Structure formats: C-alpha cells, structure tokens
Amino acid sequence: MTASLLSGKPLAKLIQQQVQTETKALAEEGSCPTLAVVVATEDSSTHWYVRSIERASENAGINCRIIDVGHAATEQVLIAELEDLSSQPSVHGIILQTPLPPGVRSQELVKHISPEKDIDGANPMSLGLLAVGQRAFAPATARAVVELLDHFEIPLAGRNVVVVGRSTVVGKPLSLLLLQKDATTTVCHSKSGPLRKYTRAADVVVVAAGRAGLLTGTDVSEHAVVIDVGTNVLSDGSLAGDVDQASVHAVAAALTPVPGGVGSVTTALLLLHTAEAAREQLRAARMPVVTR
C-alpha cells in the first residue's frame, strides 16, 4: 500500500478565490485591505518568501507593503515600527518576518503588534485568546493543518492525534485548534522519548519539529494520516520536510508533500486573515459611539 498524497494546492486556490471575493466587496465599501510585512534581514530565502507573499497579495487584491528596516536594526527601531503600523488605520494586517538581527528578541517585539492586526497569531495575547476559545487569529501554519484535514474530510472528533513539536508558531496553537475539534491530542517534544511509542498508535500525526527526515515509515501505522509541516533547506538547496517521504509514503494511508502541502495553504490563509481583519476593522469603525 502507498499513501494518498494530500496536496495543499487545490485548497489554497479555493481560499485565494474566497479572498478575491472579499477584497472586491471591501473595495466597494471603500476599504482596501493592506498587509504590512516588516523585514530585518539579508537572508535571500526570506526575501524570496516575502516576494512570494507580495505576488500572492497582488493577485488577491490586497495591498502589500514591505518595510525593510535593514539587517542592523535595533530592537527599539523594530518596536517603534510595529507600534506605528499598529496605529495606522490604513494597515489591517502585520507580519514580523524572521530571522531577526542578532540580539533582537522576537518574543519582545511581537507584543507590540496590535492583536486586531496580528494576522499570524504572534502576539502572546492571541495565543491566550485562542486557549480560552475566544476570537483571535491563529498562526496561519497551525490553521493550515486543520483546514487541510477538513478539506480532505479526515475526521478529528475522538481521534488520536499526535503533534511532534511544541513551538508557539505551530505545535502549541495547533494543539488548541485540535482540541476545539474534539481530537484527543498528544504533543511530543525532545524530552518525550522514542517517538514511535506515540506515533504508531496515532490516527493523525503532525510533524513540526524542524528536523529533516525525523519521522520514518517505522514510526507510523498503515492507517495513519501524516501532515508534514517541515521546511528544511538541504545542502544542495532543495527543500525537505520533517518526514522521510519515501519510507512513510510506503506505509501510511495519506501524506502531505513538501513542497506543495501545508505551505501553500499557509500563504493563502495569511491573505484571508488580512481580509478578515479589514472587515472587522471596517465594522468597528462603523459602530455608533455610545455616550452617557
């Protein structure tokens, strides 16, 4: 048996069409959804990714502003930029792109992104709201995993789901989203011991650890659905996930490819979040002011 491939491209296209419809509706109401991406690195792969967001934004009818503050920017400069963008009514979504300059603490910077404009769920307040079931933007990659599972009609309620990795970008917020879907969720990390003790009993395995080839065919069962979130650049410049695709493909029931899986959905969701933020901010601006 070989695994079915769960391509993210058809779902990404559907989300992009949804964004285009919403941006046209917003334009008719006088609002142009605007995404600001703050960059502070010379890393070529980061600039390539940012350009891809810019192109996708243009295709969706979203205004994308790239703010490059330079690779030597200080923490204070970045905080001032994020606070300024957060205060601008014309900006609806903000992304702080990594990597950041040496010594700059991302956990300090993201606190200065307004939660209403925090379209990638970076602000700790966004994670807190998500934890208690209140409205907040989840990190786009975490939401992309759930959207993919929904798209392929893979049930989650009562199912045993194992998440490998506990980052605040994917693992932790994803576990909250899975709990909202009534999945029985286990989060594994570097201190969990042998992975297969958990993953071989799982109906769904999501790997987001940042280690190429971490999960192999011996770690999963034949009924498992495997979602590979990894994006690791190899020495030859090629892209690889956290899953050994060849061995897992030969065993599992279904598997997302890398590239072409979770990543394409993530980018589309960032644009959808921007449009949703613009809609919410337009609605808030139109609410009558109550005076006593």
Could you explain how this protein is built, in words?
By secondary structure, the protein is an alpha/beta fold. It has 2 domains: 31-115, 3-Layer(aba) Sandwich (Rossmann fold), CATH 3.40.50.10860; 140-263, Rossmann fold. Helix content is 40%, strand content 14%. The protein has 10 helices and 11 strands. The strands form 3 sheets. The protein has a 6-stranded parallel beta sheet. A 3-stranded parallel beta sheet has the order 3-2-4, with helices on both faces. A two-stranded antiparallel sheet has the order 9-10. α1 (9-28) runs parallel beside α10, α6 (140-151) crosses α7 (171-180) and α6 (140-151) packs across α10. The longest helix has 25 residues, at 262-286. The protein is globular and about 55 Å long. 42% of the residues are buried.
SSE series: EHEHEHEHHHEHEHEEEEHEH
Shape descriptor reads globular
Share of β-strand residues? 5-15%
Ends: how far apart? 70 Å
Keywords for this structure?
292 residues; alpha/beta; Rossmann fold; six-stranded parallel beta sheet; three-stranded parallel beta sheet; 40% helix; globular
